[in-house]
Design brief:
This protein is α/β, with parallel strands linked by helices. The protein has 2 domains: 171 residues, Rossmann fold (3-Layer(aba) Sandwich), CATH 3.40.50.2000; 169 residues, 3-Layer(aba) Sandwich (Rossmann fold). Helix content is 40%, strand content 14%. Strand 7, helix 7 and strand 8 form a beta-alpha-beta unit.
């Protein structure tokens, strides 16, 4: 079995969650002994697995279907649910965005998505194709705690106290303002958020911008840090108050480093994150602050959640993800072909998407 794992506009999304999930799956497949190619234009393959949904992906999807090749489309986004409160005008165009995703996902032979919650959202949106759940996974070899890197980054950022960290694009959906409010309630601790702050033309949110400009003195905003495992290791607890997610790679990465996790109590997490076992959950700023305070003061609880984080990371290891993907690919390849009309696709391959490089910088999460 030879699989083409394709990520459109790789340079544009090179600092995003799309890219991290794509790289994790590529490594997981190779660990499982599956032959992987990445260029659908030049290399033969038995199955095409698309990790994005742009015009080139649609072109290669149509081409593969005309040639009788099975296609899997990966639903990293489930529509308006995880698109709102992100970039400028995102709330206005969210319905169109969701309609396009539904159309795109319907073109493949199967849809893969990271969580049971995401699957339910796709079914609710009317996606009728076969939907399978497979984690994005976490590279445990890369996200391995290193005490030397911890010391290096704590010196670099001047972190001398118990440290709470967050990560992701600095957009309202990620709960950045709640993170700042928690820091204000806990001036005895250090807080650091790793993530790119987008130009206002792309992500203008007046209330968030005002709050960022008036951030508490115990908060550091270093932007994106290349060495994510080292930067995360500098912290003691991940506070991830995101308001919507499909999976949330930051959670798995922090867990793999043995960092206890505090998250918002969302339905997205109910199938795999369990309060008091592998995380703490909260709904308000005051509850977030209490969870952080408990972890800072109660060593027994801290160590219990470290153990839970280890189990969580192992459940989402690349070894397991690779075996799951291999099984699903075999099942998809065995599916009988569907008689249906595919939406017309241009005979010419579309030109690559180009974006001004200054507008796309590295950041830990999308």
């Amino acid at each position: 079995m030879r699989v083409c794992l394709y990520l459109e506009a790789e340079e544009v999304v090179s600092k995003s969650g799309f890219k991290r999930a794509y790289e994790s799956h590529r490594k997981a497949l190779r660990m499982a002994g599956v032959e992987v190619v990445t260029d659908p234009a030049d290399e033969p393959y038995d199955l095409l697995h698309l990790h994005a949904f742009g015009p080139k992906s649609l072109y290669y999807l149509g081409k593969a279907k005309r040639e009788g090749i099975k296609v899997v489309v990966h639903a990293h986004s489930v529509g308006a649910h995880d698109f709102r409160d992100s970039f400028t005008m995102s709330n206005v165009i969210a319905p169109l965005y969701e309609a396009y995703l539904k159309f795109f996902y319907e073109q493949g032979d199967a849809v893969f998505t990271p969580t049971e919650f995401a699957k339910r959202q796709l079914l609710r949106a009317g996606v009728r194709k076969r939907i399978e759940v497979v984690s994005n996974g976490v590279d445990r070899e890369r996200f391995r705690f290193d005490p030397e890197k911890r010391a290096l980054y704590r010196r670099r950022f001047g972190l001398a106290r118990f440290t709470v960290f967050g990560a992701g694009n600095i957009i309202p959906r990620k709960g950045v303002t709640d993170f700042l409010d928690v820091a204000e309630l806990l001036p005895q601790y250090d807080f650091i958020w790793y993530g790119h702050r987008w130009p206002k033309a792309l992500a203008f949110h007046p209330q968030m911008e005002k709050r960022l400009d008036e951030k508490p003195p115990n908060v550091i905003l270093p932007g994106f840090v290349e060495d994510t495992p080292g930067a995360f290791a500098a912290g003691d607890v991940l506070l991830f108050p995101s308001k919507t997610e499909t999976q949330g790679l930051v959670i798995l990465e922090a867990a793999s480093l043995g960092r206890p996790v505090v998250v918002r109590d969302l339905p997205e997490y109910e199938d795999w994150l369990h309060h008091g076992e592998n995380c703490l959950k909260a709904r308000t700023v005051e509850e977030f602050a209490e969870c952080v305070r408990r972890l800072a003061e109660d060593r027994t609880l801290y160590e219990k959640l470290q153990e839970g984080a280890e189990r969580l990371a192992q459940e989402h290891s690349l070894e397991r993800v690779g075996r799951r993907l291999q099984e699903l690919y075999r099942s998809v390849l065995a599916q009988p072909p569907e008689p249906r009309a595919l939406a017309p696709v241009s005979a010419e391959e579309p030109r690559p998407l180009t974006v001004p490089p200054d507008d796309f910088r590295r950041h830990p999460g999308l």
